[in-house]
Design a protein that fits this description.
The protein is an alpha/beta fold and about 300 residues long. The protein has eleven helices and six strands. The longest helix is centred in the C-terminal third of the chain and has 23 residues, at about 275-295.
């Protein structure tokens, strides 16, 4: 199980892939930072890669068993990543400047750590998942769609060229995708209560508002740019979120720090792990300088 949070999880997860292990991937940053390198290592060393994120696990379950990262051959039109919208989905945008760490960490549906809870509130977490989905399933940016689904019952979907949409549903409990990956290709009792469809009042779906969630737009931008741009994005975000949790910067400063780091630092080719980690270090240094200027120290 690869579950070390952030860039710190890259080296051990890549090492596991190179050792040909069965990797249950919960650390999305490994793919965000070094997508091509990581997937090449999985193929070359015949490792088994199973996604643990509830969204990617749902997509994995909704794809045909024969899928081999070739969407067209599988009849897939696009991948639909669902997102709860976090705690500020309906909060007035102009009030987000005043958000506290306590508010940002209070997710309406999931119980998560502080860093990932803030990422959910900014929707950077969903942006990182978009990049992860690109590498896991061979989907270009224009064939990955994010859909706001506040109830977190549908964990993600796959839309097919014949008009069919296959979805994976379940109660919002991480034990389900973990159990699926641990037992794959069999099924085991996860301890999660069965979903009672008759108890659901309604299922809602909305398009994401990029003015409310600029971090999501930044992630799509980094994916399209390619190379080490996603490593820049991830490193700047980690520094910005840590600074917000330490009360050095405001909530809306998170996306501003990431934007400046991406605008002011050139990205290059992610041809080896040294290039990726070098870009990570440079982005962190740049983000710290921006944070210091905002914080006035």
């Amino acid at each position: 199980m690869a579950a070390i949070v952030g860039a710190a999880g890259l080296a051990p997860t890549l090492a596991a892939a190179r050792a040909g292990k069965k990797v249950l991937l919960a650390n999305k940053e490994a793919l965000v930072m070094s997508g091509q390198l990581f997937m090449d290592a999985v193929r070359e060393h015949k490792a088994t890669l199973l996604p643990i994120d509830s969204e990617h696990n749902a997509i994995f379950q909704s794809l045909p068993a024969s899928h081999a990262r070739q969407l067209d051959e599988s009849g897939v039109a696009k991948i639909l990543l669902t997102a709860s919208g976090g705690p500020f989905l309906n909060r007035a945008v102009e009030t987000l400047e005043a958000v506290t760490p306590e508010e940002a960490c209070k997710h309406p549906n999931w119980s998560m750590g502080r860093k990932i809870s803030v990422d959910s509130a900014t929707m950077m977490n969903k942006g990182l998942e978009v990049i992860e989905a690109h590498w896991l399933f061979g989907a270009p940016a224009d064939r990955i769609e994010v859909v706001i689904h506040p109830q977190s019952v549908i964990h993600s979907m796959v839309s097919y060229v014949d008009g069919s949409v296959l979805a994976q549903l379940g109660n919002p409990d991480m034990r389900t995708p973990i159990a699926h990956a641990l037992a794959f290709p069999e099924r085991i009792d996860s301890g999660v209560a069965q979903l009672d469809l008759t108890a659901l009042a309604a299922l809602q779906f909305h398009r994401p508002d990029f003015a409310r969630f600029p971090c999501l737009a930044l992630a799509f931008e980094a994916l399209r740019a390619g190379g080490t741009a996603p490593a820049l994005l991830n490193a700047a975000n980690e520094v910005a979120v840590d600074s917000f949790l330490a009360r050095r910067i405001g909530f809306r400063d998170i996306d501003r720090v990431v934007r400046r780091v991406m605008d002011e630092n050139a990205h290059g080719a992610a041809h080896d792990i040294e290039a990726v980690m070098g870009q990570d270090e440079r982005a962190r240094a740049a983000a710290r300088q921006i944070v210091a200027a905002i914080a006035g120290n």
